[in-house]
């Protein structure tokens, strides 16, 4: 250990080391609550720099706001964060996504930086480099930021750092995905084209309920109430290639269940599906296997495959000249048709399972213009009536 020299003013707390740096010592209560004090050190290039650091630290100790510098490197903290705070609190697919982002982007660029030394500028440079490389979309960079921000926020809450350095970073603007619902004429053509198709009822129910693909394929008969025209949406058919088995039943995307009231025509379609399935049960006999009591199955009771349903859908829309339409656009079409038909934002939000009405309005704000025009026309009719 280098020999330390007492500083010129004789205070006995700040020393100049043999390596030319200045070292200052201060005392703080031991973390074990024993009432004892432990000695800590700060370092700097000048005596004044060290004196300033000691003044700041001791003031924080007196206020009870002092945070001891973390000993972790960022990569070490991320590994700890993933295993302790993330793994048991998110879905398997989400955990895999977080881990991939950390291993592929964050750790290679910033992993060696001590957690206590990480700055906003370093993080901003990291994001800027991702933009300049041009390999990631603005949305993906935003996802990278989301993961890093959460990891650092937990470090702050756990007392490892004094603040979250990613808080004030600027992100590239991600272009808002354009929602392209089917026009009324296209809807009519689509319904004519799917008539008699093996997945006709799957597509019909999806179009007129706004369910996500996993939700409609995971719908079970115990969640269908023909007496009240309601469906309980409390799960989805999960497809994860990295898991064994790849298919399984999982919670909804939000983790919450919801009841939706549907049009009588939807219930009629489900009744038709029930009759078809009952016929399959009789034909299959002991070969019938529907372990999850699913509404939509093949002739032997087994679940439908996401890819197969999607590929058939794409062939259909391509055949009628709207090949760019995605399966998820059935959900968008439902939302837009509902709003244009006069449903309020709150009702549509609950039907779709969005967390807030604000999110629904943000996604379908262009429809709100039509609603405002309709509202203005209604007001004009009232004015004409009373004046």
What does this protein look like?
- With 387 residues, the protein is an alpha+beta fold.
- It folds into 3 domains: 4-63; 74-157, DNA polymerase, domain 1 (Orthogonal Bundle); 184-373, Intergrase catalytic core (hpI Integrase, Chain A, Orthogonal Bundle).
- The chain is 49% helix and 11% strand.
- The chain has helices spanning 47-63, 74-86, 92-110, 120-133, 138-157, 184-194, 200-207, 213-217, 264-284, 306-319, 329-340, 345-352, 357-363, 365-386; strands at 4-6, 14-17, 22-29, 37-44, 224-225, 230-233, 236-239, 247-250, 258-261.
- Strands 1-2-3-4 form a 4-stranded antiparallel sheet, covered by helices on one side.
- A hairpin with a 7-residue loop joins strand 1 and strand 2 (14-17).
- The model is unreliable at 1-12 (pLDDT under 50).
